[in-house]
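Handover notes (outgoing to incoming on-call)

Open items:
1. DUF389 domain-containing protein: sequence verified, structure written out, both below. Nothing else pending on this one.
2. Nothing else urgent.
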Amino acid sequence: MLHLRAIVPREKSGAVRRLLEAEPGVTHLVVWPGVAVSPPGDVIACDIARESANLVLDDLRALGIDEDGSIALENLDVSLSRSAREAESDAPGEGADAVVWEQITEATSEESTFTVTFLAFLTIATMIAACGVLLDNPILIVGAMVVGPEFGPLAGLCVATVQRRRGLAARSAFALLAGFPIAMSLTMAFTWLLTWSGDFDKSMLEGDRPQTSFIYQPDWLSFWVAFLAGVAGILSLTSSKSGALIGVLISVTTVPAAANAAVAVAYGDLSQAGGSLGQLGLNLGAIVVAGTGTLLAQRYAWSRTHGKHHPGVPGLRRD
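DUF389 domain-containing protein C-alpha cells:
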C-alpha cells in the first residue's frame, strides 16, 4: 500500500473527494477542511493500492492539484486493516507488477545526478576494482561491484527514454560521461602511486589472471549477461524489491572494466585498455537497451489493464 497526502484548493476539494471515493483501490480516506496554510486549502489523505496509484495520480494532475496544491506519496511498510486488504483485492492487477511512474522517476532523478558523493563512490569502486584485477582477486571485484553507484544513471536513462524526459536523460548521461572518465583518471594516478610504492607492478597486469581475464575480453556472452542484469535491475526498481544483489549483477562488467582500462592505460597496455573499454561500452549499452525494453513492456501491460475512464470523474482520461 501507498499513503497519499494532498493539499487541495477549497474549490477543487469536492472533485478530489469524489475521485478518490470512486476508485476501488483507495481506502482510509480522510479530509481536513481548511487546515493547510501554505498553500492554503484542504488536506486530503488516503491509502492506495499500488496498482491504483497511477490512475489516481493522473487524475489529480488532470485537476491541476500538482500546480495549485501539492501531492505527496510514500510507501506504507505495514497496514493492518480489513479495508486495506479489500482495496488491494478490488484494485485490478497485482501490486508487485504495478509500476508507479512518478515514484520511479523521482527515485532515478535523485540517483542519476552527478554529485560529489556519486563521484566519490564511483572512484572508490574503481580503485577497489583496480586492486582486484591486478591481484586477480574476485573478492575485491565483488566489493567494487557493491560500492559502484552507476545503476542510478543507467536506470535514469531508461526511465527518461520511456517517459520522454529530456532533463533526466541529460543528467543521467552527464553522470556517466563525466563520472567514468574522472574516476578512471584518478584510478590511473592511484595505480602510479602504488607502483611507486612497490605495491603494484606492470607484470601483475600482463601475467596470467584466470579469475578476471573476462573483464577485458568482450563477447556475446558478456552482452547477454548484462542484458539479463538490466532486465532484473529494472524489475527490482519498479517492484520496490531489494536491489542489493541486483546492484552486484549490474556492476559486474562496468566498474571492473573501467578499472582495468585505467590500469592498462597507466602501464601503456593499449590493447588491453581497448578490450576493457569495449567491455564497458558493450555492457552499458546492453543494460540501457534491456532496461528500456522492460519499462516499455511494463507500460504496455499497464495500459492494457488500466486504460479506462474513471467512473466517478467524467472527462478525466486514462492514457
